[in-house]
Design brief:
This protein has 336 residues and is mostly helical. The chain has 16 helices and no strands. Helix 5 crosses helix 6. The longest helix is centred in the last third of the chain and has 31 residues. The chain is globular and about 60 Å long. The N terminus and C terminus are likely disordered.
Length: 336
């Protein structure tokens, strides 16, 4: 079955994830249900967290403290590696899926599952860290979400409040492994927001301040931002092509000149996949309108879509209704 991805869907999702305040929106949306269930047992969790290692380097007192010149002191630790937070989140979600509904029960489940995510030599330390991560998530759930995510002052206060919570559960190297990338992007996003809201700046001063904010990003983050900008530009270009019904030859010429021949071919393939997805949605939607939700529609659903695609059909059709003026290729992305 055709792979259900589109250039527009992939790029917009990536751009949104980077442009948004990752520090607040992820815990409140992607993991909100987990935090709400954990909050019910916050009192028990408060007494069960593992203590911090007093010999380790502590975290900075403020989220906005001057960045350390080197972040390599944890690089040799096999536990504190890139992707650690994703692993802990996967472990946490697996424990939730098994029915754990409060911090104490969740920690019991973590003890039985941690060996599936970490090698034997790291299991004891990983479990202690995972238990503190549970307590952190409980405490994080008690913070108030800023009402206006575009208010620099409110965001600055909230970032500082979140940092104080992290200080309660993690030392410096642990924080760097879990949150350093996110924190870099949060400080950068806030800096740009403060610059944009500063009406005292001239155009030249604003441009200079933005360049300085860019330069303060670590090199790896600057590279990621550049890649995201490229994706956003490509997504906007594809949307414009769709709106103008641009033919394949013209699309390929423009894309190959801007992004190179291999990328142009890849984008063309994504265009074809999107068109095929929309055609199948059209066929399914028409059959649903004529036949209703019966056995015949279910057979058509299985015939037209893969198991993975079937999970997105209903949402795709809802989005179509919310965008009645959009053309077929713009109605909804097949997502990812």
């Amino acid at each position: 079955m055709t792979r259900p991805r589109t250039l527009t869907g992939v790029c917009v999702a990536l751009a949104a994830a980077t442009a948004a305040m990752v520090w607040w929106l992820v815990p409140q949306t992607q993991h909100g249900a987990v935090d709400q269930r954990l909050a019910a047992g916050a009192a028990a969790a408060h007494h069960s967290g593992a203590p911090l290692r007093t010999a380790a380097r502590p975290m900075e007192d403020s989220f906005f403290a001057a960045r350390r010149a080197a972040e390599s002191d944890h690089s040799a630790d096999p536990l504190l590696v890139d992707g650690l937070r994703d692993t802990l989140e996967a472990l946490l979600m697996q424990a939730q899926d098994d029915g754990a509904a409060d911090p104490a029960t969740l920690k019991q489940r973590l003890a039985t599952l941690v060996g599936q995510h970490f090698p034997p030599a790291l299991v004891v330390r990983a479990l202690a860290l995972a238990e503190r991560y549970v307590d952190y998530r409980v405490a994080l759930g008690q913070l108030r979400t800023p009402q206006d995510l575009t208010d620099p002052y409110a965001l600055r206060e909230s970032l500082e409040a979140r940092h104080k919570v992290r200080q309660q559960f993690f030392d410096g190297p642990e924080h760097d492994a879990l949150f350093a990338r996110e924190a870099d992007l949060d400080r950068y996003t806030l800096a740009r927001l403060e610059i944009a809201r500063n009406t005292q700046l001239t155009a030249e001063q604003r441009a200079l301040a933005l360049r300085q904010a860019d330069n303060e990003l670590p090199e790896a983050r600057r590279a990621e931002r550049a890649a995201t900008t490229e994706h956003m530009n490509a997504a906007a270009q594809t949307a414009a092509f769709n709106a103008q019904n641009t033919d394949e030859r013209t699309r390929h010429a423009a894309r190959s000149a801007q992004y190179g021949e291999p990328a142009a071919h890849a984008m063309a393939q994504l265009d074809r996949e999107e068109q095929h997805w929309q055609q199948r949605l059209d066929q399914y939607s028409q059959a649903q309108a004529q036949q209703g939700d019966g056995a015949a529609l279910q057979r058509l659903r299985q015939q037209l879509f893969s198991n993975e695609e079937q999970q997105r059909i209903d949402a795709a059709l809802v989005l179509r209704k919310l965008q009645p003026a959009a053309s077929g290729s713009e109605k909804t992305s097949s997502g990812g």
